[in-house]
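Suppose a colleague, Dr. K., hands you the sequence of a protein chain of 302 amino acids and asks what its three-dimensional shape might be. Before reaching for any lab equipment, you can write down a predicted structure in token form. Begin with the sequence itself:
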Amino acid sequence: MIPVTPVSADQSTLVDRPDTTGEPIVGYMNWLASLPSPSSGSLEIGPLRLNAYGLMIALGAIAATWMMGRRLEARKWGSRDDASSIAIWAVPAGVIGARIYHVITDWERFDGQFIDAFKIWKGGLGIYGGLVLGTLVGLWVAKNKGLSLGQTLTAVAPALPLAQAIGRWGNWFNQELFGRPTTLPWGLEIDARKIPDGYEAGTLFHPTFLYESLGLLVLMVVLLQIDRRMKLREGHLFLVYAAGYSVLRFFVEGLRIDPAKSASGLRLNQWVSLVVLVAAVAWLIIDSRRANAKQDLPARQE
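The predicted structure, expressed as tokens, is then:
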């Protein structure tokens, strides 16, 4: 029997772990010990060199536009061309809004280096800012095209988490926004030059990008099932999305260790998530009761 050196669960850094890669079976299963990070933040396809962060955002936008277009056509609310017309304006607006949110909430990083605020390819997009500006611009385009705003929000609701789920992988390529140290077998490897101060080289971290990406895919499926099985008012599915994402983001944000403003033990984005959650649920309840009251009014008058 060939002896195999055990790996302690307490050894949370790669440098502290004994080398077992040369041993049978273990060598093939070594990838289970951690999740590697890309060696570069770009993808090379022949002579082309693409920024992976931007590519993930673009792929997410394309996927969301496709899903929204299909949903508009399936319900005869609009067409795929309508979805594309909305996306042409809403996606850039979303990126701009996300960047503005990030710069405002992390101003110390850009104070005196304002030019860095335009270097989006290096990361730094605040999703809540992107959702606000992107949604407002998208609704403006939809209104100009004669589409119902409620129907547009319902059509785009499950498409948004799909876009976010794909876009989150840009953080993986940039090796950013990871969580606190972990000994779990899917702990994320980070290059020594990108490990925060106070942590040893080889430390494994929670892959928060993966948690959020998977959670968003689950949210997308849940929204599709709710839309299929329940008769919600037009636009209410978007409120369910907002509430669901806020819950997911609250817990994922709690794992992150990147610098962020905080108060009373919660990070800024956790407070924003709570505000969005309360606002979405309150709007959903109030609007539903108002609609039910209008339906009951004719019956009472009879």
